[in-house]
From TrEMBL, chain A:
The reaction(s) this protein catalyses: ATP + protein L-histidine = ADP + protein N-phospho-L-histidine
Name under which the protein is recorded: histidine kinase
Residue stretches making up the Histidine kinase domain: 352-567
Gene Ontology molecular function: ATP binding; phosphorelay sensor kinase activity
CDD domains associated with the record: HisKA
The species this protein was found in: Desulfocicer vacuolatum DSM 3385
Region spans: Disordered: 561-580
Bilayer-spanning residue ranges: 27-50, 297-320
InterPro entries: HATPase_C_sf (IPR036890), HATPase_dom (IPR003594), His_kinase_dom (IPR005467), HisK_dim/P_dom (IPR003661), HisK_dim/P_sf (IPR036097), Sig_transdc_His_kin-like_C (IPR004358)
PROSITE patterns hit by this protein: HIS_KIN
Superkingdom in the source lineage: Bacteria
Alphabetically ordered keywords of this record: ATP-binding, Kinase, Membrane, Nucleotide-binding, Phosphoprotein, Transferase, Transmembrane, Transmembrane helix, Two-component regulatory system
Automatic annotation (TrEMBL), chain B:
UniProt-recorded name of the protein: Response regulator receiver domain-containing protein
GO CC list: cytosol; protein-DNA complex
Pfam families (UniProt xref): Response_reg
Keywords from the UniProt entry: DNA-binding, Phosphoprotein, Two-component regulatory system
Organism: Desulfocicer vacuolatum DSM 3385
Signal sequence residues: none
Keyword Ligase on entry: no
One of the GO biological process terms: regulation of DNA-templated transcription
InterPro entries associated with the record: CheY-like_superfamily, Sig_transdc_resp-reg_receiver, WalR-like
Residues with 4-aspartylphosphate modification: 56
Amino acid sequence: MFKKCRIGVFLDRIYNSKKGAPEYYIVLRRIIITTMMVLTTLPLAMMIIVNHFQYRSHLRAELVSPIITMANKTKHSFELLLEARLSTVRFIATAYTYEELKDAHNIKRILSFLKNEFGGFVDLGLIGSDGILESYAGPYPLLGKNYAEQISFQETLIKGKYISNVFLGHRKFPHIVVAVQHLTDDGQTWILRATIDTDQFDNLIHSMGLESKSDAFLVDNQNVFQTNSKLYGNTLEKCPFEIPANRFDSHIVETKDPDGQNVLIASAGFRVANYTLVLVKPRSVVLQSWYALKTELFVVFAIGFTLILLTIIQITNSLVKRLRESDEKREKVMDELQHSQKLSSIGRLAAGVAHEINNPLAIINEKAGLINDLLDYSEAFKNQAKFRLLIASVLQSVDRCRTITHRLLGFAKRIDLKIEPMETNIVVKEVLGFLEREALYRKIDVRLKLFEELNTINSDKGQIQQVLLNLLTNAFAAVEDGGVIRIRTENFRVSGVRITVSDDGSGIPEDIIQHIFDPFFSTKKEKGTGLGLSISYGIIDKLGGTISVSSKVGQGSDFVITLPKTPEHSPEDEHEQEAH
Amino acid sequence: MNKKRIRVLLIDDEEEFANTLAERLELRGYDTKTAVSGEDGLNLMNGESFDIAVLDLMMPGMNGLDTLRRIKSQTPDLPVVLLTGHGSTKEGMEGMRLGAFDYLMKPLDIKDLTLKILSAVDASDGNEK
């Protein structure tokens, strides 16, 4: 609330401070655009950010679980394989007696059977309780070798079974050793030991069907590769990742590989041996669909943002433009109002002054005139000529004052309007009646063409009389004795009136026509009404009409007045008012 | 022009103005009587007859237009020339409508006035004949 108030005050301040200045509208436009942009894009951006995080965590779970499942499944396969090999060896140890196995022929037969049926078996040996290899089938001359010191032998004696880490045998080929202990009923103990190559491991990993950027391998609890890794090293090399040993559940970590690529590592420890299955997938591969979604989100946001921005700019531009126009319009109206108020008070003052001055002026005029008369009728005396000059000068000054007071009075006439129904034709006739005598003296032909069904309009009769009188006085002044003046009335638009006053007089030169409605512009010494054309213009304008002039030097002038049905801008006259 | 001197009744509240103008008209051969108000003028008219009345429209008390109405009702044939210091044509126009012969603005030109007087008297003489 408080903030809103402050914004209101702020807007108000900038709205009122530099109103009218171009920067004001620029600032206003900027503020509107910024506010609208923030209001519209903030929720959009927030929604997108929230979506982003929600989708990310959701998708992550969705994308990660298959990896763990795969790691578990493969681990299970490995365990099954190892269990199967262990069972096979244990079965042989159980099925055959020590004596049978000690027979070289027998053990060779058993190995060839194993090779055929299970594959992967390289050799098979019988180790006595003292650690001496007593019987052997296989490619190496190992018979009689003492295993007593080896971990495999000791661990087998303790645990009853043993699966070794991968080692490179004599052929430099990765192997593992599987050994089981056998206890006979009479307390004798011996160990059956088989070497198995790790081709099967590679087959299992291959069967996972990993894409090219992913990798899977086995490591032992010293982080040494037990199978070849496609990307990170060969068997028995050190694994670059820290794989936690002896964790039998599957879990996943995020880290960086030696190339700096972000990878997800799923690992699962074996129960039957010291192996851990490791599945490495680049994050980009895992989260591919996430990145696609992210891109889509971004594109949607960008498009939305652009559309909003364009719309807001468009709307704001037209808004500010309208605002500016209405401001200007209002200012114009205010100016006009102020102007007319100023004129009104000046007018009242002028009328008062003119009134007060006019009477003494008339007295001065008569007194000076009388002195002049007396000079005419008296005999010559000293300085008579000088007196004459002085009186002439006084009379001239009176004349000047008269012009001024008449102008002031005319000016004052613009003040208040009295609107009433008006028959324009009657007004024209009345004004003409006023000038009839002059027309008669000067033999001026006044031709009337008054439209009989002329619209009755609402206007100020007195003001219209003044304007017409002014136009006619001017026309009388323009024409020679015996000239022609035409007055025509007709309907104008729907319910207005047009009055045309034409003369065949001297016409008005182009450079004068431009100033003809300017205040106090005069080509002749006005002695008559003192109503300038500027005052006529002001009156007609105030009555909602127009006054215009066209003229050709030597051919005469046409003054055209149009008047609306009513001066006010009332709704029903809107149509008509628009025309002006 | 008539052999008879033209008798002018000048009605104006401004005494200085009326007297001076009367003197000037006398100098030009007009018999001139002045009145300083409408009532005064009408009283004078009861006593003697005039050929023309020159009437100021702006007067305190009975104003020019009222005086004009009274004059026109008493002696409709008497031509009246109006004078006004007012810049408005409105009263002038109204005066014309009430039957005044013509209309002059103060301060006036004595030649204009004598011209109007002569034509007004001519016109009314013509009417009488």
